[in-house]
Design goal:
about 290 residues; mainly alpha; MetI-like fold; two-stranded antiparallel sheet; 12 helices; 2 strands; about 75% helix; about 0% strand; Carbohydrate ABC transporter permease; MetI-like
Length: about 290
């Protein structure tokens, strides 16, 4: 009489049967994610006339000069340089602010940490449009309007709450033994934070910095509201350059969009393993 299959064998058989369905689902999700990018590439290689008659199909004759025209017309070299400054300063500032806040919430004797966590959750859910009018008034009085530093300050304020919650969850899982040993050797809180805590939570800091940097790179409303100097505008405002009256050259918009996509895509591809591992190790349920 044949032996009954073990539970592990039955589970393996079920996995083998469901594997084709899993692959099919992954292919569908990949097509869903890559479809808009493929359409954007096709649009960037068409003339405006061809784009209006054949918006979804392959270009009949690739118009590679769209990229040159978009680069020159939108002054994208200056925009990319400005975006690099804004994104890097935003990412570094968010990491320092959220890292210090998470350290204080988890390790120090802060009153009502639960109320602070609830406050951060509420703040992250509020739309920034509620604060545009008072921010414009305050920034004008403080001399921060139409400056990159003024825009970076706003980015620090709106991106730090989520990063604080992210790093708090990461810091909870790290035992405080190293910090206690450093304090026994006479180290102060700043020394413990910069030399002990920050290296330990480096994957979480990298994740928070990448998320904040990506949001700052793609952000449009605050940049177009608080910056007016054409030499200080980030690259996200470059798409405005292709609007003439009530018409928009969508071929040049697609070409500029692809140019904007390449830097962040390269950064993510280089750092994707650290990004995913950092996100996976920060349990937001803690």
């Amino acid at each position: 009489m044949p032996a009954r299959p073990t539970r592990a064998r039955r589970a393996a058989r079920l996995l083998d049967r469901g594997r084709p369905l899993t692959y099919l689902l992954l292919v569908i999700l990949a097509a869903y994610a890559l479809g808009p990018i493929v359409v954007m590439v096709f649009s960037a290689l068409k003339t405006p006339a061809e784009l209006s008659t054949n918006p979804m199909g392959l270009p009949a004759d690739a118009a590679w000069d769209n990229f040159t025209t978009a680069w020159q017309s939108a002054n994208m070299a200056t925009g990319l340089a400005n975006s690099a400054v804004i994104v890097s300063c935003t990412a570094v500032g968010v990491c320092l602010i959220s890292g210090a806040a998470a350290y204080a919430m988890v390790r120090l004797d802060v009153p009502a940490p639960g109320a602070i966590t609830m406050y951060l959750l509420v703040v992250t859910s509020l739309p920034i449009q509620l604060f545009l009018v008072p921010l414009l008034s305050w920034w004008t009085r403080l001399g921060l309007y139409d400056t990159q530093f003024g825009l970076i300050l706003i980015y620090w304020a709106i991106y730090s709450p989520f990063a604080t919650l992210l790093l708090r969850s990461y810091l909870i899982a790290i035992p405080p033994d190293y910090e206690a040993a450093a304090r026994m050797d006479g180290a102060g809180e700043l020394t413990v934070f910069f030399r002990i805590v920050l290296p330990l939570i480096w994957p979480g800091l990298l994740t928070a910095g990448l998320v904040a940097g990506l949001q700052a790179y793609n952000e449009f409303l605050l940049a177009v509201t608080f910056l007016q100097d054409s030499e200080a505008l980030p690259v996200s405002i470059a798409l405005y350059s292709f609007q003439q009256g009530f018409t928009v050259n969508h071929a040049l918009v697609a070409a500029a969009g692809l140019i904007m996509l390449l830097p962040m895509l390269a950064v993510f591809l280089v750092m994707q393993r650290r990004f995913v591992s950092g996100y996976a190790s920060t349990g937001m349920a803690n």
